[in-house]
Amino acid sequence: LATSGPEPLPELLRAATAAAQDGAKVISAAVDQPRKITMKGATDLVTETDRLSEEAVLRVINKAYPDHAVLGEEGGVSGNTQSEYLWVVDPIDGTTNFAHSYPSFAVSVGVLHRGTPIVGCVVEFLGGPHAWGTRTFTAHKGGGAFCNGHPIRTSTNPEVTRSLLVTGFGYDHGPAWRSNMELFKELTDVSQGVRRLGAAAVDLCHVALGIVDATWEYQLKPWDVTGGCVILLEAGGRLTTMDGQPYSVFSRSMLASNGPLHPQLLQYMQPKTEALLRQGFDLSEWYVP
Ligand code: IPD
Ligand code: CA
Ligand code: CA
Ligand code: CA
For 45-55, how does the pLDDT look when each residue is reduced to its tens digit (9 = 90+)? Predict the structure, then answer.
């Protein structure tokens, strides 16, 4: 199978949206049913619905672009690994929330072209038992960001004292996790609040929507962020690592903000991240397939 030149972005986005919505249908059908849970670690779980959602998402991608490569959280790398296009899929971001029927989980589908995020679709679940609903975030490079088809923009607030923030804590409770616990304290002290909802893709979309001013986290994986990154950037947001370096979806730290707040937040994050580096903590790129 030969790749036929650069793929038009609106078509890629249409396929990404169809794929994410098929994953969301699988989740909607399961959301009021008992969960079938497997443990990946002491507290890290996965449900049968994660796997079924990933299968549904991949069916759409493989049909539309059989000569592209795919990276899914549950299934790993598949397809044509020589392709310039890598689809990055989180079939349920916020699995722990889904397992408990706590809102804030999503399907995330993103596309990388030679490592650059170019297309993103995140379907966020809203509400809760007896009141589930969804909203769909979409963006392709250069085309703006949308929520249910409406254009969205990040907030314009430049002041940490007027900000609402959101962060996350992964399953690896090592030095970076402890360092972020410290940041959580420091920023809770000086901002209007730091939330911790449990789905990085949703957090990125909430910054894009302008309802929170920034989000950050250590050790996110490419499937947590690829879709959401495109949406955030197209909504006018800014992305760097937590020590202010250029960001890639393979970076081990991420600061995503509305833009104006970025310098103030880096003043808190840069020293902590540099201290981690001095302790020998590896903050180089990871999960490069
Ligand atoms: C997790 C969520 C969570 C973040 C973790 C991720 P999963 O993904 O994005 O917000 O804090 O680092 O692993 O396992 O629910 O897809
Ligand atoms: Ca997981
Ligand atoms: Ca995830
Ligand atoms: Ca997941």
Answer: 999 999 999 99
